[in-house]
Amino acid sequence: MTGPIVVINPNSNQAVTDGLDHALAGFRGAARIECVTLAEGPFGIESQRHVDQVALPLSALIETRPDAAAFVIACYSDPGIDLCRATAKVPVFGIQESGVLTALARGDRFGIFAIAEASIPRHLRYMRRMGVDHRLAGERALNMSVDESARGEGTLARLTEVGQDLIGDGADVLILGCAGMARHRVPLQAALKRPVIDPTQAAVAMAMGAVLA
Amino acid sequence: MTGPIVVINPNSNQAVTDGLDHALAGFRGAARIECVTLAEGPFGIESQRHVDQVALPLSALIETRPDAAAFVIACYSDPGIDLCRATAKVPVFGIQESGVLTALARGDRFGIFAIAEASIPRHLRYMRRMGVDHRLAGERALNMSVDESARGEGTLARLTEVGQDLIGDGADVLILGCAGMARHRVPLQAALKRPVIDPTQAAVAMAMGAVLA
Amino acid sequence: MTGPIVVINPNSNQAVTDGLDHALAGFRGAARIECVTLAEGPFGIESQRHVDQVALPLSALIETRPDAAAFVIACYSDPGIDLCRATAKVPVFGIQESGVLTALARGDRFGIFAIAEASIPRHLRYMRRMGVDHRLAGERALNMSVDESARGEGTLARLTEVGQDLIGDGADVLILGCAGMARHRVPLQAALKRPVIDPTQAAVAMAMGAVLA
Amino acid sequence: MTGPIVVINPNSNQAVTDGLDHALAGFRGAARIECVTLAEGPFGIESQRHVDQVALPLSALIETRPDAAAFVIACYSDPGIDLCRATAKVPVFGIQESGVLTALARGDRFGIFAIAEASIPRHLRYMRRMGVDHRLAGERALNMSVDESARGEGTLARLTEVGQDLIGDGADVLILGCAGMARHRVPLQAALKRPVIDPTQAAVAMAMGAVLA
Amino acid sequence: MTGPIVVINPNSNQAVTDGLDHALAGFRGAARIECVTLAEGPFGIESQRHVDQVALPLSALIETRPDAAAFVIACYSDPGIDLCRATAKVPVFGIQESGVLTALARGDRFGIFAIAEASIPRHLRYMRRMGVDHRLAGERALNMSVDESARGEGTLARLTEVGQDLIGDGADVLILGCAGMARHRVPLQAALKRPVIDPTQAAVAMAMGAVLA
Amino acid sequence: MTGPIVVINPNSNQAVTDGLDHALAGFRGAARIECVTLAEGPFGIESQRHVDQVALPLSALIETRPDAAAFVIACYSDPGIDLCRATAKVPVFGIQESGVLTALARGDRFGIFAIAEASIPRHLRYMRRMGVDHRLAGERALNMSVDESARGEGTLARLTEVGQDLIGDGADVLILGCAGMARHRVPLQAALKRPVIDPTQAAVAMAMGAVLA
């Protein structure tokens, strides 16, 4: 396949897109990976309204990219995933789905770092829909702003602390429940001595499996 | 990471290893992938005894490769997976587990092509252990020898016929339940108009996700 | 409570709204029930795109009705249900969810009449999210147009025939998987000798439970 | 339909029946609702023996009411539900079943107030039979006598306290696990800021859906 | 332990009790086993009413036997099981529960021979309550009278034929869903080449495990 | 049946075999029971490697005993269970599987005493494979050596303490998760006032059911 894997950041914050681009650098040898910003997206996807409002724009963006070999929707709520799949003629991966499925290959029970308390029920409904919620050990909120979580010096310390709680809940593998925390993956893995999954990397890896084979 | 992804063929048939090597050619840009044969393996893994007898040799092979960044056990019965994970200091992927998890990102209910009737209950127990058997639409045997399935001209026709039955069972994504049928993936996908998963490719993609990030 | 139960037809076909109004006549003694049309809706909701495109307009309509005691979204795909619940300060009922839950009180395993084959996977994902798919005996498509299904003389005969198949699948209670087939409920019940659930009536009954008490 | 919905209090305490009658006042506009006492019942249903001893008398009572359009068995243990269904020619609703199903339309994970510790395992078996126990956040006992729970001034305070614990368990909707606590529903809902389900009201609403349509 | 295992036939047909006595002859070396008839039982337990009407008499009988080391309720509907457990100070085993659990140790998916079509939904509810219905391959009715099934020459032929259907459903172990078919177990096992479980023998074995240890 | 039930201790510690022999004394009236040691086994089975290394020797031992009527693999990890079943022409029981299934007939939710923390994930995977993990209340480690657990005076006190925690987790029946703690069963049962299952006794009882009938 010659087309790129198009990773769509459904929010309009270009800094997040740039972060995705950086986090995927290691994957670039075998496949072309292009990170794009959904101009119509909100600055951050933090509510059910944000989730629902990007479905149609995501689908529209997909229609402008007939050259893509696969798409990744890079927001942990997997907004518009069903519509994007109905629209695209190529595989579409959601990062929550890919992150959770990948975690199931790395441990028995997974734990999730959520940015905000409010998104936990939304994630739980989605995991029930996947039929894998019985392997969830726990999900806990960092209670930081997205901005803070992506940059703040205190983030790794907070992740480590919440990660210990998730391990106490029974988790033996952990998922960063947000598109923008990839840079904490390796140090957090070292601190917790457990695999840590960045969901965008997980989705891109699955996309590579679909398009390179 | 600089070490290779080591894909182990747990049977001693070098032709199968060569086939794996060929099937993974597309993945070679971003990661080093090395396919090795388990010298102590039986010529084919066709029974529970074969499954159990390779566990310790697989673990021993893993100990000889401290340079590996990840391992893939390339037999659809995922032999020795628990021991290999206890042995290795790096991630270990089984191709059944990876193939099934990947299928869950490509469709709602999956169907499986088994080589032989006798392996179906073994696979079912394993999927129950994963906790995803409720998304299985059906598994059907090709009733061909492994040899035949890898080479025979009639194989694609047989796969297409059984694939139609699996679609009739409710499957919207299909898994090749064997390490040696990758070359049928693309034509079968075209014939059935449904995604077809090669489990070794799925496992290697997951391994890339773990080591490249 | 003094406000009305507002039943929203998310498509723009006023005839469907009128049909809902007629089907709910029997409920009017104890509660005010108002059936409204979503002007921005498509003429019929027949695809994932239709489902996604009405979410925001439904939410907007809800905001214009602070007087409502409860809302019912009268389309079997339960479009925009999560957003409507996030928007409304009063209970919101989806007719698929209410229809399925009500069926669980009337039989052990339920069967569903879908209008079109294409909506079956969408329904299945939603039932998995509810966690009740293990009590589904089967869902079968009528393969009629919505228009035909609502009016055609042949509809009852077709429902009876498909209903027999669903009973053969193990169903002891049946759900009309569409907002517009209420008038077939009583004769179909007589023909099949099994309870038949109209999902809009089921949702309105639940809404009455929430607001009258 | 012209017959009444007959709500049967399976214990012989007329005060409980009168309480039911009062709690259902709001439903009387659209349907006739008649609350009756099972003369043969124990004064309260507090043990497995009580549950089993009312099954045949309930069935006998049902046979004396060929005029009924539906029955509601108003005890949270749903005593004799299978026999009553085999006996009646019209729909029969149990309040536990109806209460739990209704809760599933109001929240993601439900919590239950039990009167006594001893009934919790009985309820759990019944929810497993329904196949919805995986959505139970928790059940906690008030550890009050039925009498106290129905009248005592401290009851609302106790319910509020236990309700906070259930919310801590993950519940976002709560069920009063007894036929006699309806009068606490509205104030408790206000105190906890979560929907509270009275199971008898839930069952009568479902019965209305079955008979009015 | 010195008391007997008391096996109660909840119907009043002494010939069934004698049959149980005969079927348990092989177990008599290590434990005293006493088979008794519930005088108050119906001649056969064939309906939900029969199931419910024996609960209290079974409990009363249990109270007359303080010498028993354990009880077995020898009817496949496990009538009164919860009450008998609440009454007895020693373990009580139901034959459906014991038969199904034992089957899970002998195969992956079990099939059941029911005497009559009408009891299948009752059994299914009970297996859901146990939480093991996902391992059920199928249940099929013999459609013979109990009398016929216990004696008739055609019974083995009929069992063999239905057994082949159950194997076709995916069953690799079979359960005789009735207390009176033990004498067909060994020949049926030979005919089907699959383990066949007599549920009374399974329950008595479990009872021996509880009392001999 | 005339052959013995052969109980195999898969570790090479003869004292454990003697303990099994002692624990099964009560079962000897009705069946011959022979306890044998797997000479090739490790001194104790404490890791995944130990589990995997005994599979082939267990199968070989089984082949030397064509006289056996049934086999019991007396290690709580059920090592080699699939291979032993493929090898033997008679029933094979694993003690974890038998212990858990037996517990399901004695209570609603079971708790498990593990010897070591490290075996808990292994047990959990196996219970998921059985499909009964949803009835697990909890598993807690004694954190004693096997040696200590079998003899030490403090063992009963430690079991009682951990048992109280398991009851706090919701367990109403408890399983000794090891082949060597049978002698604590009766006193522990008295201390905790809950049924306690010795898994080897449970497996031998099931084996008796299979061979005596």
The ordered H/E elements of chain A are EHEHHEHEHEHEHHEHEH
- Estimate the helix proportion of chain A, in percent: 40-55%
Tell me the count of domains of chain A: 2
Classified by CATH, the class of the largest domain in chain A is Alpha Beta
- The span between the termini of chain A is 9 Å
| Strand order of the biggest β-sheet of chain A | 2-1-3-4
Largest sheet of chain A: 4 strands, parallel
Tally of DSSP β-strands of chain A: 8
Beta fraction of the residues of chain A? 15-25%
Q: Rg of chain A from C-alpha positions?
A: 16 Å
Quickly list its features.
alpha/beta; 8 strands; four-stranded parallel β-sheet; 213 residues; 2 domains; Rossmann fold; Hydantoin_racemase-like (chains A, B, C, D, E, F)
Write a brief structural summary:
6 copies of one chain form a homohexamer. Chain A has 213 residues and is an alpha/beta fold.
